[in-house]
Design brief:
Layout (H helix, E strand, L loop, with lengths): L10 H14 L11 H35 L5 H21 L3 H21 L1
Length: 121
Amino acid sequence: MSGRPDSGTDPETADSEAAAGQDEAGAPAQDEAGDPEQDEGAARRARWTAAATGAALTLAGLAAAVLRLTGPASALVPAAYASGAAVCAAAAVLGSRGRTRRALWLLIAGVMVMALGDQFD
C-alpha cells in the first residue's frame, strides 16, 4: 500500500505493512541464519560420511592391491591400488577431523589413482 503516512491508518497496520515490505524487499529474516543444532548435526553427518567413505575406499583399494599382487599383473598395478588406498586413508583421517572439503578432493584423487592402476592392467 503506497499511501501517505498521514492518511489516517492506525499504527498497528502501518507497522505490519512496513514489516511486510521489508520482508518482500529481501531483508534477512530472523531464522534465516539457521539453527545451531541443525548446523552441528549437518557437520557431524558430513564428518561421518567422509570418514566412512574414506575407510570403505581404503579397504577396497587394499583388497584390490592384494588380489592384483597374487595375479599375473605387473607390479605397477598393485602399487597404484595401494597408493590410491593410502590417499583415501588420509582422506578418512581429514574427514574425521572436520576437513570434509579437502577429504572429498582426496577421495576423488585416490579413486582416480586406483582407476589409473586399473588401466595399467
